[in-house]
Every structure is written in C-alpha cells, then in structure tokens.
Amino acid sequence: MADGNDSIRVMHLVNTYQYGGAETVIRDLITQSDQQQTQYQVCALLNRQEARHWIDELGVEFVSPGLCHPLDLVRGPGLAGLIRRFRPHILHTHLPVSDLYGWGMRQFVGKPALVTTLHNIAGYYYQQDNRLRHCQSRVHRWVMHHWPGTIVAISEAVRQSFSRYLHNWGQIVVIANGIDEQRIEVGHQRSRQSVRTELGLSAEIPVILSVGRLEKQKNYPHLLRAVHLLADHKLDFAALIVGEGSQKVNLQQMINNLSLHKYVQLLGAREDVIDLMNAADCFVMSSLWEGLPMALLEAMMVGLPIVSTAVGAVPEVIQDGVTGCLVPPQNPAALAQALEQVLSNPTMAASWGQQAQRRARTHYSAATMAAQYQQLYRELATAKLQSTQ
C-alpha cells in the first residue's frame, strides 16, 4: 500500500498499443494482479492503438496524448497533464521512446518512482541504422546510465546483452515474461477443423505457424527460403504467417517469385491467434534477435513443438530435442531440416509439444510475473512514502 488507505497507482507508459509483446505483457500483468492493491492506468504516447480494447475490456482506464510522431512537441506536453491527473506512485515505462518521455517528465509530475522494462536485447534498443535512431540510442544510453529507478529485464539474456552498453547493468532485475493460461483457454473459441476449413486447409495437412511483426527482426525472408527448400523435397504442408509490418509487400513479392502460393498464406494481424495455434502442428521463429517472445510462450502454452533460431532468451526457454529444435540464425537450410524433422515425425512432435506446454505452465506463468512486479511496486511505493515523511 502507498499509504494507510489507498491502493498503489501504477501508470504503464508505452509507445503505442498495438498487437505486440510489450502490450501483451501489460495486459497479462494487469489481468493477474490484485486490483484491490493496485490501480492501473495505461497511456499510449502515439495514436497507433489498435489493441486498446484489450485494456478497455479489463475495465482499466486508457489514455493518450495522441502524439503523431515521437518528436511531436505540440502534443507532447499533454502527457504531463495526464500523469498529474492520475498521480501515479509508480510510472512504469516500456520501450525506448516511453523511457525518454517518462524520465523527462518525472521532475514535473510529482516525481513518481520509475520502473522500466527492457523488452528486447540491447541490439534492438541501440540500432543505429539512421540518424534519428543514432541520436535516440545515445540519449537512451545516457538516460539508462542515470535512471533514477528500477530497470527490469525480461530474461537473463536480455540483461546480459546490456553489459557492453551500460555500466550499471549488474543492477538490472530479471522478471521473466509470463502467459495468462486462462486467456489461452478462453481464446480457444473454434475447433481445429473449422479454422482449417476457413483457410482452405484439409484436416490431414501439416501446418507450420509463425506469429510476429513483418519487420527485419523476424527475418521472414529466411523462413520463406526454408519453406522453398521444403517444397523442393516434395513435402505436403502449409505455412501460415500472422502479422503486419513494413516488409509485407516485399514478402508477398518473394512468395510470388519463389512460386510459394500453394504453401504460404500471409494472414495479416489476427485476433484469433490462439485458434490458429490450435489448428497448427508446429510453431516456427526465424528471428535475427529476440528478447523473450510472447508468441513463443503462447505457442508452448497451447502445446506446440517449437522450431526456432537460437537467439536472445530462446535457448533459456526451449530445450533442444525436448521441447523443440534450435537452429543457427540466418541458416535457411538448417531451419528447413528442423521443420522437416518435426513434420515427418508426428509422435516426436507431439512429445515435444507436451513437454513445451508443461515447461510453459511451470516456468512462464503470468501469475508469477505479476506477483514479482507487484512486490516491486510495493517496495517502491513504501520507499517513496517513507521519503516524504
């Protein structure tokens, strides 16, 4: 408790509220928290808020200053008014732009305790592929060096990745992402066959599923090359890719050039991801880098065997040869070989899926994640109260 009567007020500040990992973490954290002890508000900086209904459905207030872009200095000051009105004890930021706004606003909004969660490896945060990202990277590193609060990493691999960038990386706390198992159960609305019928797939055909933003990080061109190699082996299968992003046109062109129309469907953003997982036989990730991907944990919770590149925290989660198969990044041949192994051995694949589900339930539950965050909130709120007495 922040004082003798009030619950702890926590504002989650995030760049956007789209269908992504950070947004899923926020939703599952709120769902699993004791809202008698913690009052939440979610604030998205930018106007991209396609998934805000996730928060609305929880009965939690969702606000936004409505920034058109990260450097929107006209609407930016409106954020201070939103924070002052809610009077959070804890300002919990997610992703680089929100970190910078949260740090910059803190002095003017009552100095709430600051928490940031690092949702990806340092290479994502400190990409320097253009001048704007270069400037953002330098400023963010300086802010993290002087962060007047708690820094949380979603995995040990994420924490370790910041060691070459931050001298205070050893103070980073690890709270692993977790999945709300009840959400997975409720999300299973339709039968396996009805989903397949909608997609024009037979009951017998093996189905590979990948879920993620269509961006460089996910390296979907290499997945398509692996699919092309599988097709050359005369295997009968289907590959479904769920997500939107800047590479969609290029990926569709690649599907055309490689004559993969028979095998690959780009499904765009979908609300029924859990149903799609239940209709699939294998979950695949071809990423160049990752933090601790929520889609991967969801697939494990559903009971799918996993084929993934060994990047970020994935080797912490996937036990090679037990819950799935790990392959080197940027190696389509190895990815194709692993997929063929799974598709050709349904008994082995079923065993991997069962082990994956057991591991997800044991080690990556949202209840555990929420309990750890709530304990952190209590400690910070108590320290803040004592400092003002």
Which tags fit this structure?
single chain, 389 residues, alpha/beta, Rossmann fold, seven-stranded parallel β-sheet, six-stranded parallel β-sheet, 17 helices, 13 strands, 16% strand, globular
Topology:
Layout: E1 8-14, H1 21-32, E2 38-44, H2 53-56, E3 61-63, H3 78-86, E4 90-94, H4 96-106, E5 113-118, H5 122-125, H6 131-145, E6 150-153, H7 156-161, E7 173-174, H8 181-187, H9 192-198, E8 207-211, H10 220-232, E9 238-242, H11 248-257, E10 264-268, H12 273-279, E11 282-285, H13 294-302, E12 306-309, H14 314-317, E13 324-327, H15 332-344, H16 346-363, H17 366-388
Parallel strand pairs: 1-2, 1-4, 2-3, 4-5, 5-6, 6-7, 8-9, 8-11, 9-10, 11-12, 12-13
Helix pairs in contact: 1-17, 4-6, 9-12, 10-15, 13-16
Alpha-beta content class: alpha/beta
Number of helices: 17
The count of domains is 2
Strand-residue proportion = 15-25%
What Rg, in angstroms, do the CA atoms define?
21 Å
Q: How many β-strands, per DSSP? A: 13
The poorly predicted ranges are none
CATH class of the largest domain: Alpha Beta
Q: Please write the string of helix (H) and strand (E) elements.
A: EHEHEHEHEHHEHEHHEHEHEHEHEHEHHH
User: How helical, in percent, are the residues?
Assistant: 40-55%
CATH architecture of the largest domain: 3-Layer(aba) Sandwich
- Shape field: globular
Q: Average the pLDDT over all residues and give the rounded result.
A: 94
CATH homologous group name of the largest domain: Glycogen Phosphorylase B
Distance between the first and last residues' Cα: 15 Å
In what order do the strands lie side by side in the largest sheet? 3-2-1-4-5-6-7
Oligomeric category: single chain
CATH structural fold name of the largest domain? Rossmann fold
How is the main sheet built?
7 strands, parallel
